Each structure stands twice: as structure tokens, then as C-alpha cells.
């Protein structure tokens, strides 16, 4: 889910914008961007991912003017590139949505929060749990991170959207409509998990070195 038109109070827009900005800055400060600048292949993959997601975000269900249902792919990007580049791609995609007139510009911060920051954080948390606590197994990594983790990230982002509307809506009708949209979460979760999981499995088979969170030596070479 992302917002297309503003039905939120100004204080909520400012709060979400500040939270998104702080997370983006904190994430960017801890990432070795020099290694990315030296890797032209990864730069091309990031640009291709950004373009593909901008196109895929055009496939959206929008029964009301202010809320859209669509696949997000931030969880997959987090597994493939890690959180800082994934958030950078998400920011570029959200800016593109504003530039082409699909989204009102005051919603940039809240959309980055629910489509970027929250899915990336949930996915990172699931990956750390798998990395530290579960056996070094390719199926475990694929199914727990690629399917369960993506589904959980979609659920948490959807619930966060509902919570943001509940706390900060400026239209009483919006709360009723977002509750109806929340009923679609059980459909969005398996769709996002299936597509992201299948793409991740293809990468793990053909280009495992492209997946930054996957250690081929641990999960394949030592078996």
C-alpha cells in the first residue's frame, strides 16, 4: 500500500517525513558507498531494479483516490543489495511517482516510510535471526527470508498504513475505507512473497554472488 493523495493531518506528514529522513541518513552513513562506486555491475543492477519497480508500480489497484494497492519489492531489494541501497532505490522510485504525477509530493515521506523503511527493517531483522540462530541451509535461507520474511514485511507495512490513517487522518471516512483495504492484506502477502521468493531463488541458482545477504561458502561450499 502507498498513499496517492493526502488525507493525513499535516503533523502526521511531517512526522513520517522526519522519521524517513533520519533513517535514510543513518542507513547511508554506515554503508561503504565507495565499494558500490567501484562496482559498475552492481550499479547497473541497482539502476535496472529502479526502472523495473517504477514500471511495476504502475500495476496498481485503486478503488479510492488516496490509497493504492501494489507490490513493493523492497524486501527483495534488501536481501539482494542490503538495506541502504534498497532504501536508495525505494526513494528514487517514490520520487519518480511524484514526478510523473501519480502521488502528491507531501506524501513522499510517509510513502518512503511504509514502502521502504518498514519493509527493509522487518526483512533485515528476519535475515539477522536466520543468520545467527538457524542452520546454514540454502532452503532455510530461501524459505524463511525469501518467503516468510517478505510476507511478514508486507503485513507489518500494511498494518503500519492502517495505524497511520487511524492516528493521523483528516477525513473520518478514511478510517472506514482503510479498514476495508486491510482485508486485502491476506492477498497481498502471498503475492509479494511468491514473486519475491521466486526471483530470489533464480538469483541464488544462477547468480548467488549478486545476493549480498547470502554467503555461498557457508550455505553451499561447506555442504
Explain what the structure shows.
The chain is 73% helix and 4% strand. The chain is mainly α. It has a single domain, classed as Arp2/3 complex 21 kDa subunit ARPC3. Helix 7 packs antiparallel against helix 8.
Span between N and C termini?
Answer: 40 Å
The rough form would be described as globular
How many individual β-strands? 3
Specify Rg, calculated over alpha carbons.
17 Å
What is the helical fraction, as a range of percent? Answer: over 70%
Order of helices and strands: EHHHEEHHHHHHH
CATH class membership = Mainly Alpha
What fold name stands as the CATH topology?
A: Arp2/3 complex 21 kDa subunit ARPC3
Strand fraction: under 5%
Low-pLDDT residue intervals, each spanning 5 or more residues: none
Number of domains: 1
Mean pLDDT: 91
Helical run tally: 10
Strand order of the largest sheet: 1-3-2
Outline of the structure:
By secondary structure, the chain is mostly helical. It is 73% helix and 4% strand.
Give keywords.
3 strands; three-stranded antiparallel β-sheet; single chain; 4% strand; mainly alpha; globular; Arp2/3 complex 21 kDa subunit ARPC3; 223 residues
Topology summary:
Elements: E1 2-3, H1 10-29, H2 33-37, H3 40-56, E2 61-64, E3 67-69, H4 74-81, H5 83-99, H6 108-133, H7 138-168, H8 172-182, H9 185-206, H10 216-221
Antiparallel strand pairs: 1-3, 2-3
Amino acid at each position: 500500500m502507498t498513499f496517492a493523495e493526502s488525507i493525513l493531518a499535516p503533523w502526521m506528514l511531517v512526522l513520517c517525513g522526519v522519521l524517513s529522513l533520519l533513517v535514510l541518513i543513518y542507513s547511508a552513513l554506515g554503508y561503504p558507498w565507495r565499494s558500490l562506486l567501484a562496482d559498475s555491475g552492481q550499479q547497473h543492477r541497482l539502476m535496472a531494479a529502479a526502472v523495473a519497480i517504477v514500471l511495476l508500480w504502475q500495476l496498481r489497484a485503486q478503488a479510492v483516490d488516496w490509497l493504492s494497492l501494489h507490490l513493493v519489492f523492497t524486501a527483495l531489494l534488501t536481501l539482494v543489495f542490503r538495506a541502504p541501497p534498497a532504501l536508495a532505490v525505494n526513494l528514487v522510485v517514490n520520487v519518480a511517482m511524484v514526478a510523473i504525477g501519480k502521488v502528491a509530493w507531501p506524501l513522499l515521506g510517509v510513502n518512503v516510510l511504509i514502502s521502504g523503511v518498514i519493509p527493509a527493517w522487518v526483512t533485515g531483522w528476519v535475515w539477522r535471526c536466520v543468520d545467527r540462530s538457524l542452520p546454514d541451509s540454502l532452503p532455510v535461507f530461501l524459505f524463511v527470508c525469501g518467503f516468510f520474511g517478505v510476507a511478514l514485511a508486507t503485513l507489518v507495512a500494511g498494518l503500519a498504513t492502517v495505524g497511520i490513517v487511524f492516528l493521523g487522518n483528516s477525513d473520518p471516512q478514511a478510517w472506514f475505507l482503510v479498514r476495508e483495504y486491510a482485508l486485502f492484506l491476506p492477498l497481498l502477502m502471498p503475492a509479494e512473497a511468491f514473486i519475491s521468493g521466486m526471483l530470489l531463488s533464480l538469483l541464488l541458482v544462477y547468480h548467488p554472488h549478486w545476493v549480498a545477504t547470502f554467503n555461498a561458502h557457508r550455505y553451499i561450499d561447506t555442504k
